[in-house]
Design a protein that fits this description.
By secondary structure, the protein is mainly beta. The chain folds into 2 domains: 41 residues, no CATH class; 553 residues, Maltoporin, Chain A, CATH 2.40.170. The chain has 6 helices and 39 strands. The strands form 6 sheets. It has a 22-stranded antiparallel barrel. Strands 3-9-10-7-8 form a 5-stranded mixed β-sheet. A 4-stranded antiparallel β-sheet has the order 17-16-38-37, with no helix packed on it. The longest helix has 26 residues. 47% of the residues are buried.
Amino acid sequence: MIGTKIPNSLRQERAESWAVGNDAGKYTAVVAGFIAATAFSSAEAQQSAPLPPVNVDVPTTRAKPAASKPSPDALRARTAMRRAARRAQPTTAAPAVPFPNAGGLQAPNQNPYADAAAPYKVDRLQASGKFPEPLLNTPKTVTVLTKELLADKNATSLKQAVVSTAGVTLGTGEGGNAFGDRFFIRGFDARNDVFVDGVRDAGVSVRENFFTEQVEILRGPGSSYAGRGTTGGAINIVTKQARTDRSFYGMDTTIGTDSTRRVTVDANQVITPSLAVRAGGLFQEAGVAGRDFTTDNRNGGYVATKWTPLDTVKITTGYVHTGISGLPDFGVPYYRPNTTTAAGAGGPYPDFGVNRRNFYGFVNRDFFKVAQDVGSFNAEVNITPDLTLTNKIRVQHSSNDYIGTLPERPVINTTNLALSTLSANPQSRSQNNDLWANQTEATYKFDVMNWKHTFLGGVEISRERASIDTYTGLTSEQTGIVQSGTGSISGVSIFNPQFTFLPFGPSSLRGLPNKIKIDTNSVYVMDSANWQDVVILNGGVRYDDYTINASGYNATGTVLGTQGQQVGMPNFNVGAVYKPIPIGSLYAAYATSSNPTGAEYDGTSTAYGGISPTTATNQVFGPEKNTSIEVGTKWELFDRHLLVTGALFQTTKDNARESQTINGQSVISAGAAYQIRGIDLGVGGNVTDKLSIFGGLVLMQSEVTRSLVPSANPILFPSNVGLKLANIAHESFNMLAKYQLTDVWEIGGSATYKSKIFGGTFLAANQGTVLPSYWRFDTFVEAKVSKNWSAKLFVNNIFDKRYYDAMYQSATPFVLEAPGRSASFVLSGRF
């Protein structure tokens, strides 16, 4: 044994393993030690026990020819050839992912819909049946915010995520609508066009991002995809799902200015190869930068499971709970020195010397509580390799409960502006929403003459219920009927509000809620046909049977008769894509949608798209009809890691609502029309392996094309026709970029621009009010502390820009002030 020599080839490979220090080398050393120990123990056993003699015929040793021993040059050449052969062998390696996803930091729980090497670029949408082609081949503008992008935006809520997205602006709650997330996409109200995993999230709420995988903003009418509404587009929140490929765990801890403390956790555990559970949680306590007294506290949790008992069967479940509470901020008053002057003469009071931190609410009375509970059960069965059946069941309850104070009706002191006062008008709501929905779909793939078809047929049934109550003595207005209301406090100083800590007794609900019921039965078919990945055609037809009923009480508590409507709404879409080369596409698309009465589910006022059981005059009309034309192009550049898009679009609305005064009452009429035209540019992904970008530019023109009533200001505007629309930023831009300096350090920043927004009552921008345009800049720096830990420092609104998110649509408006400069430190762990 001692005289045994290891062949040169084995010695060479062993030396290489030892020198490199790889796992194979360690394994070889362990095995060699085990063999040596075994041999030593065997030798000791032989020495301690007598053994019978053994006779061995030893062969004669013969010297090797001198030529059989390779020369040093031959050894070096042979070693070089072996190393080259090993390098040439294919290996399975994880894709190169730019920082901060390098190594094991975020790779375990990376977004499954995104490009592994470019997390800002999404390759496909969640609804693979309705959108079977990659995003490059989909004839529709879609903006997708991945969870990696949300993290780099430091966007912890849906509102924060979309407010910096081009083509999306914010609105406020109105007298007959709830305060909460209200979005305008391409100029059209989409507050009830928010979906969770493809199922409508009924009612206006405030939505968190701690359970979000990505946010999909689908632009243009989409009733054939999603049902009612969706005139300018829809927002789909994709939730985090359990994964059976591997276990992973994550935590993010945030400490920031304005007493911000936030912790989120995310854990995915593989129990068996066919079963996994994922769970997470949220805790937050925070103020709001630049605003006194306002608070924003949150908590929540989610759990998701995935079970694949057979290769052809997949069952997933999910449950999300979110609770958000605090002291609400209903904004600052608007200064209008003369109501007959042209738009833009006035502005928000902080632009005229008022302290931007002024709070006009009441600390001892005002509050808000928002809660959501969303449960899902989904099953997918592959009947054959080409036929798949899916079924989604959704049960959901949400509540929106608040008392807030609107700073309205300023009384201007013309001799001394500092002595001006306003009315602190209370606004209250206690709304509970319940939803039950079931979606059943069949997807069938087949080929016909080199055309690869993906055909989908579906049936959807949904039941939506709302109970909308108010608090006693706190109704300041009721839009739709001219009246003054009760509960306001006048004489509040605009420059130094003096009643902030006024004592209030406990508030109680009126106990006479309005009830709204919506039942929708839908059937739809869609087909996508791909010819050799050169020509792609798609189309779909959907029919919605929509029934709404509303009942309520008048001011004296008398039950009023039920108002309601049942309508059938057929809609369709068609699209064509031509791919001159694999990395590019040209497309054209046409789509329709319908907005029936009461589709804005939170509305109790017809003036804002709802249905009012307390209005004696019939305010129920046929659905608004919308059409959209879009032509565009998409390209995947820089090794297909950067998606660049561009589109021209036009959306028109017919049978639109208008407001007019008849016999002293404000009523609604139908028959108006308007259109919005624009250009939509977008980019997302990697320019290099170190530089990532995401952004867009949207330019729009809007105008009223048909009107049945004269302008609200006939001195300046003889007719509504030709006027721009209210609540739209006609030009918007955003760009986020990050760059990897070293293996440890990364820097990033973003710029956001929104043009001025005109105010107005209901339809046209005719009230002489305007929010100024603004630029906002954010930045962050990140350090990869170790394989599993990273630290990131954010500074949002670097220059502490004073700007405004939205304007209340009334003759005495107020505006919502955006947060000021803030800083936060985030420590993240990924295992």
